[in-house]
Amino acid sequence: MSLAHAHPGSTSGIQRTAYAAPRLSKSGILAVLAAHAALLGLAIHLDVLPSPVPMPALMVSLLPAATAAAQPTPSEPPPPRAKPTPAMKPQPSRTLTTNAPSPATTSAPPEPPPAAPPVAPAPAAPAPVSPPRFDADYLKNPAPNYPPMSRRMGEEGKVLLRVFVDAGGRPTQIEIKSSSGSPRLDQAASEAVWRWQFVPARQGDEARAAWVVVPIVFTLKG
Q1: Rg of the chain in Å (alpha carbons)
Q2: Among 43-57, 117-131, 158-172, which is the least confidently predicted range?
Q3: Where would you tag: which of 36, 61, 136, 142 has the fewest CB atoms within 10 A of its CB?
């Protein structure tokens, strides 16, 4: 280590002393460690260091099962939460009534239903009615007389007489249904038919009274 003195006449006065730190190499460090190890071995050999004090023996014993049971057990997982069930509407109460069984009774066998009354046969359709007849040859009904005045005047025409014939074949009522246009001809026709004989109307085998139309024709030809 060197000490430098300040030259006289310097402006800073006293110059600070500078120290240079020594540097150790790896070989130097190893040499120092070896020296320490040698000194430690020598001290032990010469009984300079105190001998180690023996440690008391450590006794280990097993705990009984009861003590082991006292250890905290792992906590059980909490039970699952029950899902809320929807509230059900109250149902109206029903009262069931049970009838006591009635004592067994012996009933007579049911009477047979009354026989249905015989159905009357439907009435047969009435037989058709045949109208009275006036044109049969055996009747021999005379033709009406031609009035002389009507012949001279040249009157002609056709008269329709509506005649009601009874069950005996006799005319009981005569009406002029259609006139010939001449009152003399109409009257001559009615007088002739009053003297006629008719075949009465029949329904099956029964004679009946009925109406019939009688045509009378007056003509000068022929």
Answers
A1: 84
A2: 43-57
A3: 61
Higher pLDDT, 115 or 74: 115
Q: Is 177's pLDDT higher than 70?
A: yes
Q: Which two tokens stand for residue 136?
A: 């049969």
The pLDDT score that the predictor gives to residue 91 is: 61
Confidence grade of residue 119 (pLDDT, cut at 50, 70, 90)? confident
Secondary structure, 3-state, the chain = CCCCCCCCCCCCCCCCCCCCCCCCCHHHHHHHHHHHHHHHHHHHHCCCCCCCCCCCCCCCCCCCHHHHHCCCCCCCCCCCCCCCCCCCCCCCCCCCCCCCCCCCCCCCCCCCCCCCCCCCCCCCCCCCEECCECCCHHHCCCCCCCCHHHHHCCCCEEEEEEEEECCCCCEEEEEEEECCCCHHHHHHHHHHHHCCCCECEEECCEEECEEEEEEEEECCCC
pTM of the model: 0.45
The number of angstroms, rounded, from the C-alpha of 202 to the middle of its chain's C-alpha atoms is 68
Tell me which residue of 195, 198, 192 sits closest to 211, measured CA to CA.
198
Q: What tokens were used for 215?
A: 């045509």
Query: Which residues on neighbouring strands pair with residue 212, listed in sequence order?
Result: 163
- In the numeric block, which tokens belong to residue 172? 């009981």
The pair of three-digit structure tokens given for residue 46, joined into one six-digit string: 């010469």
